[in-house]
Amino acid sequence: MAHGNYRYEPKSAFAKWLDTRLPIIRLVDESIVQFPTPKNLNFWFTFGGILTFMLAVQIVSGIVLAMHYVPHETMAFDSVERIMRDVNYGWLIRYIHSNGASMFFIAVYIHIFRGLYYGSYKAPREVLWLLGIVIYLLMMATGFLGYTLPWGQMSFWGATVITNFFSSIDQVLPGVGSAITQWLWGSFAVDNTTLQRFFSLHYLLPFVIAGVVVLHVWALHVPGNNNPLGIDVKSPADTVPFHPYYTIKDLFALAMFVLFFSYFIFFVPNFLGHADNYIPANRLVTPPHIVPEWYYLPFYAILRSVPDQLAGVVLMFGAIVIWAFLPWLDRSHVRSNNFRPLNRQFFFILIGVVWILGMLGAQTPDGNFQFYFGIEVPISKLLLTQICTIWYFAHFIIITPIISTMEKPLPVPESIATAVLAKGGAPAAAKANG
Amino acid sequence: MRLLAIASLFALVLSSGAQAAGGGDTARKHPEPQSWTFTGPFGTFDRQQLQRGYQVYKEVCAACHGMKLLSFRNLAQPGGPEFSAAQAKALAAGVQVAALNDAGEPIERPGTVADRFPSPYPNEKAARAANNNALPPDLSVIVKARAHGIEGEGPDYLYWLLVGYSDPPPGETVLEGLYYNPYFEGHQIAMPPPLATDGQVTWPEGNPPATKQQMAKDVVAFLTWASEPHMEDRKAMGVKVFLFLVFLCVLLYFAYKRQWKDVDH
Question: What is the pLDDT of residues A387-413, one digit of tens each?
Fold first, then answer.
């Protein structure tokens, strides 16, 4: 084991008795109490805990909302408004849930990019990484289904646009795409049947996520945590017990995150939403500009980067599926970008590219790119989207394999303990300790 | 802190995306921001203003626009116009509501506080027939549904929509039955100028003069409350939650520092 040889030893007679029957105390102790954790984790590593918390918040607030919500096309909109107006603290619960989705995605994006930066996807954590991708895909589906439920204009038209992705299969298999789309709708258009099944699935998927999260945490606890240095744990001097060291650190980070979350809930609860979703769904009126929730915007831009609908859909899903190949596309044995100066630059370029794709996804597809502060960049949105999309895929398929083969990484410290002591200015002690 | 910085960048990317939407020659004119009592983390509604605004709604807007999500009891609830219970009852009694008598025959009875605001038209077809085929939207959540909502330009937009009618500039022609309003997307709106003259509504003694601007402002304040009737509760709770969380963060920060002080990391 990379992280030391810690094993739980039951002390009391009852604990011994239970341990041979149901080793649940062992599970908890070895997973989140004594679990040896690298002592150099920074605050970017607190988002796993924050995500677990957000999943719980979404499930609990969602269950309460489901007690009052009516999944029917003529009543859904008004039932959400009834929650806002007449249910005790209904406004609070709904704003927690609607903003919680955004917070969940903010946290997951930080978590993903942290994993990218520190090489957390590399051996022996490939399965952990793959399970993370599954969770992310489930989150995307859940978020989309949930956004449909208030049955406002964006709910309805968003559902129409997304489900119509599947009809593009008609281009290669005539009739099959339409058949799949109608099967998803349960009808010949997005209507009440669609709403009811979306509600059912929106209730189901979070529990599937919770199940995959269990696998994700399990897959974490076998190789143990990665860390900012990206090197394996060599000795007990490299680690601290998870509790109380990381419980308190995660709690502090969580409290800060909840403070940020609260700002949205209490002071700008509709800022992350779209005003059109307070207009009841109307199949006869198409909104002038259909946009998805902010967390899909980079993928929405990729979808629109090519005129061909099927190609766009393939690219959009491919943009996520490509992550699954990353552990094998990146050939470098060094995990952390702290020791990969060249790759590190491309990491930040990738963040910039995804950011610009997000901005492009929010804008109407015609005209020139609108940067911040009303600055118009003299490049057409379509061209910029195509450049960014090509760069995005090239990053994974071309840049990463080439750099990881060519690049000569900086020397990596011997162990976490020597590195942190060197940082503290006591290299001699490190030798003695190590 | 880094988290906050990142998150505010997220907010920036979203808002800029939203701003960038639109464009074109007939894009709606940017509504000049007005001062409102309800903005900001400590914002509250002005009761007198909401009461005046209700009167504008009732005497002007309600001729064509319903507010089906509101009941007369809402007019007396805390955080709103806070009419007295007796006033709300009297306002409700002023409308006739369809009901059934004990024999099951359709009758009309005076409204109670439990009744919803009456809708001006029995159905959409009737509404369109009476309005040159345009549909006057329900106003229950109108401020959240326009121009990025309450946190965006919603209130300013509606204010200017009400007072911003003018003659079309040379080069822009207005279709038969429509009116020129530069604040409206496309500049041609089916709604005739609703606030035509000063003093259109008569308020009780002690209120400011009923100028067009004042009436528009008051009715927008009323509609903002109607869109978000628990806003005052929300902000008041938010301030307390914030104070608590800041205190908790400080405590946790020191607990974290203390726990880690003997560990090199």
Answer: 999 999 999 999 999 999 999 999 999
The rounded distance, in Å, linking the Cα atoms of A426 and A432 is 10
Query: Looking at the partner chain, which of A245, A269, A272 has a beta carbon nearest the beta carbon of B14?
Result: A272
Q: Quick check: is A392 in a domain?
A: yes
Of the listed ranges A90-99, A284-293, A419-428, the least confidently predicted one is A419-428
In a domain, A8, yes or no: no
Q: CA of B95, closest CA in chain A: separation in Å?
A: 23
Backbone angles phi, psi at B68, to 5 degrees: -70, -15
Round to whole Å and give the CA distance between A180 and A91: 37
Q: Is the pLDDT of residue A427 over 60?
A: no
What chain B holds in terms of domains, given with CATH numbers, is: 23-70+116-249 (1.10.760.10)
Interchain contact, A266 vs B235, CB within 8 Å: yes
Contact B222, B56 (CB under 8 A): yes
Which residues, at least 6 apart from A406, have a Cβ–Cβ distance to it below 8 Å? none
Alpha helices in A69-125, H assignment, sequence order:
76-85, 90-117
Type of residue at A12: S
Taking each helix axis as running N to C, give the angle between helix A47-68 and helix A76-85, from 0 to 180 degrees, rounded to the nearest 10: 110
Of the candidate ranges A223-227, B7-11, B115-119, the one whose mean pLDDT is the lowest: B7-11
Instruction: Find the angle CA(A63)-CA(A221)-CA(A328) to the nearest 5 degrees.
Output: 100
A57 exposure class (CB count in 10 Å sphere: 0-12, 13-18, 19+): middle
Tokens (6 digits) for B131? 């309005």
| Cα–Cα distance for residue pair A260/A61, rounded to 1 Å | 18
Q: What CATH number does residue A410 fall under? A: 1.20.810.10
The amino acid at A194: T
State the amino acid at position A196 in one-letter form.
Answer: Q
Q: For B121-134, how does the pLDDT look when each residue is reduced to its tens digit (9 = 90+)?
A: 999 999 999 998 99
Which residues of chain B neighbour A85 with C-beta distances below 8 Å? 69, 74, 229-230
pLDDT per position as a tens digit, B217-227: 999 999 999 99
With cut-offs at 50, 70 and 90, classify the pLDDT of residue A105.
Answer: very high
> For residue A422, with 0-12 CB atoms within 10 Å meaning exposed, 13-18 middle and 19 or more buried, which class applies?
middle
Q: What is the predicted ipTM?
A: 0.91
Looking at residue A236, its amino acid is: P
Query: DSSP character for A293?
Result: -
- Tens of pLDDT, residue by residue over B133-179, are 999 999 999 999 999 999 889 999 999 999 999 999 998 899 999 99
Domain interval for residue A406: 32-433
Q: What is the 3-state secondary structure (H, E, C) of B22-62?
A: CCCCCCCCCCCCCCCCCCCCCCCCCHHHHHHHHHHHHHCHH
Would you call B21 and A270 a contact, using CB atoms and an 8 Å cutoff?
no
Provide the mean pLDDT of chain B. Answer: 91
Which residues does chain A have within 8 Å of residue B154's beta carbon, measured at their own beta carbons? 275
**pLDDT score for A128:** 98
How many domains in chain A? 1
Q: Which two tokens stand for residue A40?
A: 């150099």
Q: Which of residues 93-132 of A touch B (CB under 8 A)?
A: 95, 106, 110
What's the confidence (pLDDT) of residue A218?
94
Tens-digit pLDDT profile for residues B247-262: 999 999 999 999 999 8
Considering only the C-alpha atoms of chain A, give the largest distance between any 2 of them, rounded to a whole number of Å.
Answer: 76
Helix (H) / strand (E) containing B180:
strand B179-180
Does the CB of A217 have a partner CB in chain B at under 8 Å? no
Q: pLDDT band at B46, cuts 50/70/90?
A: very high
A262 to B245: CB separation less than 8 angstroms, yes or no: yes
Residue A12 lies in a domain: no
